[in-house]
Amino acid sequence: MINGDRVRQAREFCGLTQTDLASRVSVDQSTIALVEAGLRQPSSEMLASLAMQTGFSPAFFRQGFPPQFSVGSLLFRAQQSVTARQRSQAQRYGEIVYESAMRMAAQVVTTNPLRLPQLDPGTTPELAAELTRAALGLAPDRPVGPLINLIERSGVIVLALPTHLPKRDAFSLWTQATPSTPLIALSTGVPGDRLRFSVAHELGHLVLHSALKGGLAAVEKEADRFAAAFLLPAASMWQELVPPLTLTMLAELKPRWGVAIQALVMRGKELEIISPNQAAYLFKQISMRGWRTSEPIRLEPEKPRAYRKMAELLYGSPIDVRRLADEAALPVGLVQDILDVHAGLEEMPRRQPEGSTNVVKFKRRPERQPE
Amino acid sequence: MFEDSPDPDSIVSDLTRLVPVTYGALEVGVAKAHSYFETEGAEIEPFLFSQIVRWSARRHLTTKGRLTVEFEFDELANNGLSISFEGYDIRLRKAFRGGVPTPGSFAMETFHSQTFGFFGDASRPNLFILWDVSRPSYDLAPDLYVACPKESTLKFPNVAECHWLVKLPNVALMPQPAVRVDDFDKYEDLPIHRPLEATGEAE
Predict the structure, then answer these.
(1) Pairing between strand A182-186 and A297-299?
(2) Which of A41, A358, A365, B21 has the greatest number of C-beta atoms within 10 Å?
(3) Which residue out of A247, A278, A308 would a mutagenesis test of the B interface target, given it has the greatest number of B Cβ atoms within 10 Å?
(4) For the complex shown, is ipTM > 0.95?
(5) Where are the domains of chain A?
(6) CB atoms within 10 A of CB A293
(7) Minimum mean pLDDT among A50-59, A101-110, A329-338, A348-357: which range?
């Protein structure tokens, strides 16, 4: 028995319209519509064709309903020239990676209590950022280290999607599981500094906007204000951004605070450390050097870890990708892509041990050959 | 005097650490000069603009510049900028038509002529580091240049003759390999474990 919702899920995952898919499997659009609505079962030939055209195995289509997965902050970005098809595709990617993650999560034990603050209605983004820092165990004035690791350790599910989502770097939602859990989904191919700001922006949505109040643009602005205050606390910025700001100074601050030079300029302007004219002057300098799109000091994009860690525990190390894919009824290539965008233990950021430069490295002695 | 000027590449390499400090000081100078005319609500006057840049850059170099790089700083008339670094005598000047301005004093003529004393080192010639602004915005140009001057009889408004003039890369603002955001907190792997009954052993 084929589940029509799964056909629709696979189609939207592939970014296809009903007409697109119909022409690929050589049927009418109405046939696809009927199958998706559960009013008609496809023939075995059509099922094979659906599987071939979407890349999902017939077993995938025989599964129960996909998880309830709200649009979340994808809704907030709706006004930013994102098409409905792009939004659905992002949502479907999220659903598939989430379902696969939850399948594994049911077989492991996580001792990771949720540490996001409960805020009173009307809390300003700046106060929310301060309270969130405190809830996550951060000092009020220090740079935030590896952000994604911190958020994962705070009970938020962070999943990387093996695709570049157009016009968005990340989205967030509260899952409809019981209990509801916050989730952030990340696009790939985003520069490290921008990704950190986007993750902080989504964290802002999670703590501020569990229910949508006010206009979409206002909500986005609040999340931006949260991200700026969370990553670049005002008190520290007053110490760090000593006018006149120069590119040389900002380039030094960038890797320390883990944000783009442009974000530092914006923060200086917001806090009125520099005048709008000075900010405009710096932005002109940034444009003149072509740094609007590519800044000179790049930060390595951070990766979430939980998905891969669960796979390592359940499917061995190296991970038995084929077994994982079979059990999740997903294409092996897709599972491998999902694993690749999550961090192995060796990829995780670490503090350099003190005095590490003086450490003498010993090589392993070669095995003695039998004489 | 010397006939064969040293290789510019090795000199550019010697100056690597000085460039970010110098450029940073000039950025401060240009920002201060802009701020002055903005506050006054007046149009930029080029000569005063350059004076403010030199004065502010000199102040920045003497107060903050030495925190990162060791160099000596000579006081010159008219807010002139002169640095001794790694055995080089260097004058910071605003470019004139993209080159070195002709000398306007006897002292400067001597500097151009590369006259070395008894203990002089011809491998460490006198140098100019040139800065400039773009017109009409008066933004600091993105690159500094280094020039090795030579004696000449040219007078203003010509550009002084040089052995060579090359761009000085500023490593602080150049594309660099990606760095990790770490060294802040100790990384802890996530507390995710197999259930005890599955492994038969405590995690």
Answers:
(1) unpaired
(2) B21
(3) A247
(4) no
(5) 1-66, 67-230+301-371
(6) 7
(7) A348-357
User: In this structure, are residues A101 and A159 in contact, taking their beta carbons and an 8 Å threshold?
Assistant: yes
Whether A108 contacts B195, CB under 8 Å: yes
Q: Which two tokens stand for residue A72?
A: 């979340």
Which residues, in sequence order, are CB contacts of A331 under 8 Å at separation 6+?
A: A55, A56, A57, A325
Interface residue B189 vs chain A (CB under 8 A):
yes
* A164: Cβ contacts below 8 Å, ≥ 6 apart: A187, A188, A189, A190
- Is residue B131 within 8 A of residue B141, CB to CB? The reply is yes
- The secondary structure of residue B71, as a DSSP letter, is -
**What confidence tens digit (pLDDT) does each residue in A217-227 have?**
788 899 999 99
Query: Could you state, in chain order, the average pLDDT of each consecutive group of 10 residues for chain B (203 residues)?
Result: 77 92 93 92 95 92 71 73 88 93 88 76 87 91 93 82 93 82 64 73 45
Confidence of residue A365 (pLDDT cuts 50, 70, 90): very low
The verdict on A221 touching B (C-beta cutoff 8 Å) is no
Give the pLDDT of residue A212. 52
Minimum Cα–Cα distance from A350: chain B residue:
B187
Length of chain B counted residue by residue:
203
Task: List phi, psi (to 5°) of A206.
Answer: -65, -40
Indicate the SS3 state at residue A172: strand
Q: Which whole-number Å values give the CA distances from A170 to A205, B47, B71, in the listed order? A: 11, 50, 48
Terminal CA-to-CA distance of chain A, rounded, Å? 65
> Which residues of chain A have a CB within 8 Å of the CB of B55?
none
pLDDT in tens, A252-309: 899 999 999 999 999 999 999 998 988 998 998 899 888 988 888 889 999 999 999 9
d(CA A104, CA A312): 10
Residue among B142, B170, B182 minimizing CB distance to A145: B182
User: What pLDDT does residue A356 have?
Assistant: 44
Report the topology of domain A1-66: 434 Repressor (Amino-terminal Domain) (1.10.260)
H or E, element range at A23: helix A18-24
Residue with tokens 């761009």: B167
* Residue A88 to residue A75: CA distance in whole angstroms: 11
- pTM, full prediction: 0.85
Task: Give the count of beta carbons closer than 10 Å to the beta carbon of residue B79.
Answer: 17
Q: Which residues of A touch B184 (CB under 8 A)?
A: 142-146, 351
Q: Which residue has tokens 């006198």?
A: B126
Backbone region of residue A355 per phi and psi (left: phi > 0; alpha: psi in -120 to 50; beta: other values) = left
